[in-house]
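Quick start: what a row looks like.
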Amino acid sequence: MGATAVAVGRRTEEAIGQGFQVVPGEHGTRLVWRASLALLGFQLAGMLAFSTVQYQRFNLTTDFAAYSQAWAAIAHGHLNPYSSVFGLPFWRNDLELLTWPLALVYWVYPHGVTLLWLQDLAVVGGEWVVLAWARELLTKPAPNRRASGPWLLAMVACLVVLTPWSWFTIGFDFHWEAFATLFALLAGRALWAHRYRWLPLWAALTVLSCAAPGSLYLVGLGMAALLTRHSRRPALAVVVMGGSWLLLASAIGAMRFGGLSLNAMYGYLSPHAGSGLGGDLEGLARAPVRALDMAVSHAGYLAGYVASAGVIGLRSLWGLLPAVFILLPSALNANPNFIHSAAAFQSWAAVLFLVVGGAFVLQRFVVGSSANGKVVGFLGCCSLASALLVTASFADDIPAYIERVSAGAAARLAAVERSVPAGAQVIVSQGVIGRFGPNRAAYPYWAEGAPERYPVTRSHRPVVFVLAPVQGTAEGYPAETRRAIDYVRGTLHARSFVQGDGIWAFVWLAPRSVASVVLP
């Protein structure tokens, strides 16, 4: 009886000891995960501060003016707002339907900086999804799993936090691509993990954020899942949803991007092709050499996006295919601004998907008896080295999003903003127009050397001009802006009410017979 009791006691003690045994690497995984979350927290705090200073400095351009104008208009009950900035009904600007429910947030804090803060949250949220996905890939308990998983997760965290493209994404105004990226990553993770309950929601939010980019994100994800023989029916549904929404947006005339048409960006492929998405695809089929030449001309920026993600993500279809569908439209765009670092919001999603792809590649070495620790270390070092090289090359450009408007000029612009009533008509240099968009009929002045015509309506008879030759992200020519200043002051005899620190502001009482005004 006593011997039996002792034996039972020993077995019970052994079972309890096994139950509380720590899986190798689990403690390290927890430490790395907490440190990664802390890094994201610090990054979010930095981004929120960055956006706040940027807003205070008036360093916001036409895109922010258009989105904040529509956001405020919808919040005030104008459910079909016209964008004076883009020159079209707002819904035609890539069918960004999430603007409507987002207008509810306007009344929480009715200031344009709220949009920038929400964008910061979306960017860091997308990075969190990448880390959570990589954690499942690299540290999930499995037979023959190597103990290098936590270190590789730390490497992924460094790639996500160090990339300069996240800062460029928040630095250039407000764009829905940041939200589409977050939702697409959530959809991809749900598709990979067979969590189909939330997949329809994440996929729908992806395309509702912005039709063209969001649809292409889904097509790339679905094809990756199909080609890896992963969840074929849900993957096919994702592809069909993305492709159908893209065709719908094209059919109803909602394929405009900041007022630019598809033909303006891809018409070089075939001048005789039809307009719209079908015409662009026809042009691509007719002139593949032209398309290749355009892509090669943008190869430097393409390499920068890929290198920032560590390159090895190209070895995984989960990284390669989404990246191709994200980067290709910008690479083939005749307007270099769409691939330039200043417009990284167009391509930043590719970086995050390539980081996920890199985690898939590293998983092959972490799990399985054929794992080679030296190969893992070499790939990790190469990935970090390439990412650090890109960061070092572009980091100096990030402060420009704050510094392009001096403190003195920002103070002058704040005085102008306080003086201009809601409902007024304003014509503002595009580099500083951002905060003048909400609750006003705002029109950008580009100063590109060609005459620019603006309507003058009876409801907005006093016209306010705010001209800044060298302040802000001035894509035009300072000499042209100075000519416009002389014209407004000398020919229109407008009254100056703010002048100094590179800012000229005038108010002009247009005669009733005048229906438009032309600036040189």
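That is the whole record. Residues 26-59+94-400 form one domain. The mean pLDDT is 88.
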